[in-house]
Design a protein that fits this description.
The chain has 23 helices and five strands. By secondary structure, it is α+β, with helices and mostly antiparallel strands. A five-stranded mixed sheet has the order 1-2-3-5-4, with helices on one face. It is rod-shaped.
Length: 660
């Protein structure tokens, strides 16, 4: 086991570090590190050495203004003065340690210093309110920096002080805060959470909630990494002690045994080695190996006395006095109890004092020293009655606080539920109002869209009527023109031929051809010349040639017609081209038009562009130009085509698409 050579290993390590510290050829940094390690590992709890080395180290470190190191040195020096009984000087050193930590912006040292101030001086230099203030500051710093283990330490220490001052309402409040802290969604398991869970377990143990204490000690064991074996040793021992309280001796012994197999062989930290020996003693004691248990407790006692850890000494002395009584070594038992009662004056553990008094009474009684036995029995009985009454009063006050806390929580829950219901009702109302507004807006929108549709339908109907009227007018105009052509031209020529026939005058072929040409011209105006025979492309070319002869418009075309349309579709395409060209000549003031036609397996596409002034700004239906567009739309619908118009100040484009 690691404890066998602990003293020798400590002395060797101490000598090595002392050589570095006293070697002036070493760098200042190395000397400071060596001395600091000496303080933490090898003089910790030895007041004279701790204070002397701390003063020498301060002289070396203060000129460097390394406030973080200075803060930690003064923290250790404060402990040295405290164990010397110089509490006022210890208090000053610890306050200065906090000041240095603030200068170094070492938040963790600030929190540690303030926690130590409360732990050391809660009954001397600090009032109850001052303790609460310091703990509140630690809690705030820890929460802000998300150092949840220190936040738990602050709450735990607050619970202990609140219990000391019988402020159970505050104690329960801090327990509630701790439960909220442990349920935080952002809380992740890391190296520090072992301490957090350990603090939580300690709180529940102090409140008598032993099952929760065991649960959180277990979480602490799982959270502590192998690199932090010191904490794991302590947690196993504490969990075992709680299991003893619950009467689960078998599992408690298992925990005590587990605490002895964690530290490496070369481990030298005296405090943890003392804990390991104490845990080993517990294991051996509850497996009834009393002789070996006595030796293990004695080793823990030796290390703790050497390090002046009075609070830990009494635990070993207590078990050693029990073993001495069992072995009927009454003189040794009395000696151990006397020593324990001396330490109790410092640690003030009432439960331990009661057992030392009781064991002293039993030892003196066994030796036949009735007067001494009676004296210790009277002390024991008086303290037991006082302790019982105090515990009874504490339990009553705690129960009242718990009842008040439960009532307050119930009222808070009722208020929360009422607020929640009100909020839910408010949300429901908002949803209903929102739905009403949404329905209203929807109805308004539907009404608006219906109105637009009606107006669009009405406008379409009006446009259709105008188109129909215009078409009828155009038909009548065309009929009049044809009638005029027949009357003025063909009829006149035929009358001349008739007159010649009546007078038996000879008829020339030129005169007859002239009449035929006039009839053909009139026929061509009614339908493209020989459309059925010559087809779409030739008809388009003839139309372009004719338009260029009768107007100043130049027309270019690109006709790629591989997949013919039906004759009905071809005729409508021809009429669309004719209408588009007519619009260009009449309205656009264009000098050039380009016609592109393409037909393949994908479908049919037609484009008619001009370089004119674009469409007039008037609304559709207010000028004759729009009737031409409407005519094109109607013809495209008739052949299931899609037509579009694009117009700018640089010209107009008509596009027609018929999918295959």
């Amino acid at each position: 086991m690691a404890c066998i050579s602990v003293i020798y290993a400590q002395e060797c390590a101490k000598d090595s570090l002392m050589n570095i510290w006293q070697d002036d050829t070493q760098t200042t940094d190395n000397r400071i590190k060596a001395a600091f390690t000496l303080l933490k590992e090898h003089t910790y709890g030895i007041p004279e050495e701790t204070i002397g080395l701390s003063k020498a180290l301060l002289d070396l470190a203060e000129p460097l203004k390394d406030y973080q190191t200075l803060a930690r040195i003064r923290n250790i020096m404060a402990r040295g003065y405290y164990f010397q009984g110089k509490t006022e000087e210890s208090f000053k050193q610890l306050q200065q340690s906090v000041d240095y930590s603030l200068k170094a912006n070492d938040i963790e040292s600030v929190m540690l210093g303030k926690l130590n101030l409360v732990s050391f001086f809660k009954f001397t230099y600090l009032s109850q309110d001052a303790c609460y203030k310091l703990l509140y500051e630690v809690d705030s710093l820890a929460s802000h920096s998300k150092n949840w283990s220190y936040a738990a330490d602050a709450k735990y220490t607050t619970v202990l002080i609140a219990n000391d001052y019988k402020d159970y309402a505050l104690s329960l409040k801090k327990v509630g805060e701790l439960e909220l802290l442990l349920n935080r969604s952002e809380l992740e398991i890391d190296d520090n959470n072992g301490r957090l869970y350990f603090s939580a377990a300690s709180i529940y143990k102090s409140l008598g909630n032993y099952q929760k204490a065991i649960d959180f000690y277990t979480k602490a064991i799982n959270a502590v990494p192998e690199s932090k074996a010191e904490l794991k040793v302590i947690v196993y021992i504490k969990r075992g002690e709680v299991k003893l309280i619950k009467g689960d001796t078998l599992n408690a012994v298992s925990d005590f045994k587990a605490s002895t197999n964690i530290l490496p062989e070369d481990y030298t930290n005296s405090k943890t080695l003392a804990e390991e020996n104490y845990g080993n003693g517990l294991y051996l004691y509850y497996t009834k190996e009393y002789s070996a248990a006595f030796k293990a407790f004695d080793k823990a006692l030796e290390i703790n006395e050497m390090s002046n850890r009075t609070s830990s000494v009494t635990y070993s002395l207590l078990y050693m006095s029990r073993i001495a009584l069992q072995n009927k070594a009454y003189g040794q038992a009395i000696e151990l109890c006397t020593k324990g009662l001396d330490y109790i004056k410092v640690s003030n553990y009432i439960e331990h004092k009661l057992e030392f008094l009781k064991n002293s009474y039993l030892a003196y009684k066994a030796l036949g020293n009735i007067n001494q036995a009676l004296s210790f029995y009277e002390q024991y009985k008086a303290l037991d009655d006082e302790f019982f009454n105090e515990e009874k009063a504490k339990a009553l006050a705690k129960q009242e606080a718990e009842n008040a806390f439960a009532l307050e929580r119930q009222e808070t829950n009722l208020k929360y539920e009422a607020n929640l219901k009100e909020e839910q009702d408010k949300r429901k109302r908002m949803i209903v109002y929102g739905l009403i507004v949404l329905v209203f807006v929807g109805l308004v929108f539907l009404a608006y869209m219906n109105q637009r549709k009606r107006k669009a339908a009405q406008r379409e109907q009006e446009l259709q009527e105008q188109y129909t009227h215009q078409l009828l007018d155009d038909i009548e105009e065309e009929r009049g023109r044809i009638a005029g052509d027949l009357h003025d031209s063909v009829n006149h020529s035929l009358m001349q031929l008739k007159e010649k026939v009546n007078k038996s005058m000879p008829l020339s072929s030129t005169e007859i051809s002239d009449v035929i040409a006039k009839v053909r011209h009139i026929s061509h105006n009614l339908s493209p010349a020989m459309f059925e025979q010559i087809g779409l492309i030739k008809s388009i070319e003839e139309l372009c040639r004719s338009l260029m002869e009768t107007s100043s418009l130049k027309i270019s075309h690109q006709l790629d017609y591989l997949q013919p349309l039906s004759k009905k579709q071809e005729l409508q395409v021809y009429r669309i081209i004719e209408e588009a060209m007519t619009n260009i000549i009449k309205h656009s003031k264009a000098t050039h038009a380009f016609l592109k036609l393409k037909s393949d397996d994908a479908g049919f596409a037609l484009s008619v562009k001009d370089n004119g002034k674009g469409m007039p700004p008037q609304k559709e239906g207010q000028n004759t130009f729009s009737f031409g567009l409407h005519s094109i739309k109607q013809r495209s619908k008739a052949i299931r085509g899609i037509v579009s118009f694009t117009s700018t100040a640089n010209g107009t484009e008509v596009n027609l698409r018929i999918t295959a």
